DNA sequence: ATAGGCACCTGGTGGC
DNA sequence: TGCCACCAGGTGCCTA
């Protein structure tokens, strides 16, 4: 679930119930996720107004009135469940606590936000808002795909001479922020680039073409996430789950969507992870 | 510096 | 029904 579009979808879903509201109470139900929670996390959150919810790569940052920011990563299975918000946009009752509800934020507007993460690859930390960029987990991350620093010259430069498959390179968060296994596969399909191609041996024009394609793939997905959000009125308040039409991801053996192509989508394993592609269209 | 592999953890699925 | 192998949207860390 959580690559950039899903994280952005979650952030947008949280804005109406968290921004401007005060965390009246924070339940921290275990000492850690992927790493131990910071010292006194519950106390440092309690009574704090959330000034702003931002996203950097796959991280959500909640800037607090105290000058600290809460850093949240959803890992592989993290979810944010909203319940009982007074705006009536989501659901009206608080569902019973479930297994893996690790942190619960009780907002002063009546909303409750529950972080649920079965696999616990997620993370939370507190850092100084002013120096957030220098946080260990954020410092090395590359440009935001929708930002001005992500452009053709950059991508060409960072891929130059790289001997690694383009698939691996695009998964590397230092090259560009926010892509994961799904959207790398989708972007390479749209760019007609074979996932196993060495990153440093792709014509610069084809690398350049990846820039708008990556933006399109991500914005298409964000749009899809946003539209499904509106259906949550009668749903259970779970965010970050949306239907999206993939061209290749998870479609091994299914027909290629390209016109005039009769090939089937193939799957290979690269550094332990599945890559889906069309061997006819992608070279 | 770069590349590859492992580890962390739980749950769902499909085969026998 | 039970057991088991395998798979899953991420990424830090260790080793050559």
Topology, number of strands: 10
- Please estimate the helix content: 25-40%
Task: Extract low-pLDDT stretches.
Answer: 231-241
User: Which structural class fits the helix and strand makeup?
Assistant: alpha+beta
CATH topology of the largest domain: N-terminal domain of MutM-like DNA repair proteins
- Going by CATH, the homologous superfamily of the largest domain would be MutM-like, N-terminal
Q: Sketch the topology as an H/E string, one letter per element.
A: HEHEEEEEEEHHHHEE
How many discrete structural domains?
2
The shape is elongated
Strand order in the sheet with the most strands: 1-6-7-5
The CATH architecture of the largest domain = Alpha-Beta Barrel
Query: What's the pLDDT, averaged over the residues?
Result: 91
Task: Kindly provide the name of the CATH class of the largest domain.
Answer: Alpha Beta
The biggest beta sheet, please?
4 strands, antiparallel
Q: Report the portion of residues in β strands.
A: 15-25%
Radius of gyration: 20 Å
Distance between the termini: 28 Å
The tally of helices reads: 6
């Amino acid at each position: 679930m959580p690559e950039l579009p899903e994280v952005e979808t979650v952030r947008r879903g949280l804005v109406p119930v968290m921004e401007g509201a005060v965390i009246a109470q924070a339940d921290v139900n275990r000492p850690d996720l992927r790493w131990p929670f910071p010292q006194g996390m519950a106390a440092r959150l309690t009574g704090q107004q959330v000034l702003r919810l931002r996203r950097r790569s796959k991280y959500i940052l909640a800037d607090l009135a105290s000058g600290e920011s809460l850093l949240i990563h959803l890992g592989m299975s993290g979810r944010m469940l909203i319940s009982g918000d007074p705006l009536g946009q989501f659901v009206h009752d608080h569902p019973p606590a479930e297994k893996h509800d690790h942190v619960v934020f009780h907002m002063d507007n009546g909303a409750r936000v529950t972080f649920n993460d079965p696999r616990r690859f997620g993370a939370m930390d507190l850092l100084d808002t002013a120096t957030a960029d220098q946080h260990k987990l954020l410092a090395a991350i590359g440009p935001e795909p929708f930002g001005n620093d992500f452009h053709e010259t950059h991508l060409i430069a960072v891929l130059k001479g790289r001997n690694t498959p383009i698939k691996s390179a695009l998964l590397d968060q230092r090259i560009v922020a926010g892509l994961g296994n799904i959207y790398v596969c989708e972007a390479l399909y749209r760019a007609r680039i074979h996932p196993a191609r060495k990153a440093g041996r792709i014509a610069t024009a084809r690398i350049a073409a990846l820039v708008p394609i990556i933006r399109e793939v991500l914005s298409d997905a964000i749009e899809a996430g946003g539209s499904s959000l509106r259906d949550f009125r009668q749903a259970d308040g779970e965010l970050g789950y949306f239907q999206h039409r993939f061209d290749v991801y998870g479609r091994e053996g299914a027909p290629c969507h390209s016109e005039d192509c009769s090939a089937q989508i193939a799957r290979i394993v690269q550094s332990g992870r599945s890559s889906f592609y069309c061997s006819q269209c992608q070279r």
